[in-house]
């Protein structure tokens, strides 16, 4: 199985992931497994409020994650039942300036490929847009992020794609979470990179030589389409395609539900800000936020 269980458990259980990352020397926020509100309050005395409380298993797209602001808030959060097999994980809140994602591919024979580090934006815990490469990111910090991702992939013996989600404070980088699969932060690679994350995932699993991860254009943006008031998403194609023939739209065939990721829009070119405006407009039309 690729990736193997020894690697995959770190994407399934955040407490195990934190122990593993510390063991390989990756930079992580201060953290602790907490068994009770009293134990969590002890942690808060060390790092201060607010701090982050997570369920170690079962969370995604902001679910199972709370920014705890006070003792009463802490008690309310920990009164909820945990998912099967999960524990409570407390982490220091990182004062980041931007969120990053460093994606790498790794084959069983040890060949690796590192994609440009991207900036991700989360809205209510859900990734809303991605810009590649991350605007304004210091080149040395971008190389550091790629090195961290490659070191983790090697230490965990990952096969296929690995996305390392990070916090950038402006002076330091901290690892937030891992995803051992093609990841939402890499969908831009379908049109924006010489070899997409999906192709390199397959190449890696088959132990074929990896393709180039380099970008085709100076910039690429991806904006997620979130479920809204439009039930028949395909009805929006005519308007979006006619208004901006340069966009690429991917719909996933999912049932539309409020806030659910049901597709994405990609634009490539030279000016990230203008690309974002174009992709946001299309995504808003698909969701029903605008009608022109």
Q: CATH homologous superfamily of the largest domain?
A: ATP-grasp fold, B domain
Basic shape: globular
Q: Count the domains.
A: 3
Give the distance, in angstroms, between the N- and C-terminal Cα atoms.
Answer: 47 Å
Largest sheet: 9 strands, antiparallel
According to DSSP, the number of beta strands is: 13
CATH class (first level) name of the largest domain: Alpha Beta
Strand content of the residues, in percent?
25-35%
What is the CATH architecture annotation of the largest domain?
A: 2-Layer Sandwich
Structural class: alpha+beta
Low-confidence stretches: none
Discrete helix count: 9
Q: What is the average of the pLDDT values?
A: 94
Helix content: 25-40%
- Note the run of SSEs as H and E: HHEHEEHEEEEEHEEHHEHEEH
Give Rg in angstroms: 20 Å
Q: What is the CATH T-level topology of the largest domain? A: D-amino Acid Aminotransferase, Chain A, domain 1
